Amino acid sequence: MGKGPGLYPDIGKKARDLLYRDYQTDHKFSLTTYTANGVAITSSGAKKGDLFLADVSTKLVNKTITTDVKVDTNSKLLTTITIDEPAPGLKTIFSFVVPDQRSGKVELQYLHEYAGISTSIGLTASPLVNFSGVAGNNTVALGTDVCFDTATGNFTKYNAALSFSSSDLIASLILNDKADTLTASYYHTVSPLTNTAVGAELSHGFSSNENSLTIGTQHSLDPLTTVKARVNIAGIASALLQHEWRPKSVLTISGEVDTRAIEKSAKVGLALALKP
Prior knowledge:
It is built from 1 helix and 19 strands. The mean pLDDT is 94. 3% of the residues lie in helices and 65% in strands. It is an all-beta fold.
């Protein structure tokens, strides 16, 4: 997290990234180019079964203001404007989706040595108001995340989390789904030189009385090549190989197999991101 406790989504993020980030069974491709005035244009496509999805996004950075505009195959236009540090530690984010008139939202983020606060409000007559706050330091952090619907007068979300971090270990405990799901995660750095780490995530649903467990590991074969593997309590095993064959251009090959039904075909995913 760096100095300070960070924001609420940072709690447990290291373990989630290890266990879930970049794993896929689809085919994805993205190409980023830059114009003469510094505008980044990214074209992306993804094939999911017989369905093909695509989008085009642009990013313009002008001093402390970043403007992102994305258009997808459903003719939706997503615009995000980020103002970085209009005051020390403060970030302002304004976003909206066209033609969804209820999608407008303003978010304020504030980072301090001993706190991280994020609050957002929808730009409608009866908006959703979301607040998350974390107190602590870069060792111990306690946070909460709530959402209030002004139209109904009810809380649609209330979560809480606790995190402990050391030089090589991060452990977290998160209470989600209106206190119905308890998730514990663990991330341990085995060797910083080879980026070797192990992680686990255990969840329990109180109303369903169901448990889920996922464990995984990662290791860098060299500075440009990383391998990851994971398996969950349902017997689904996955692995991926990621290689940065040129700066910021990454090829990822991943596979998934059901160890309890080994006769079924394995699922294979491919992602290619190209940047000049």
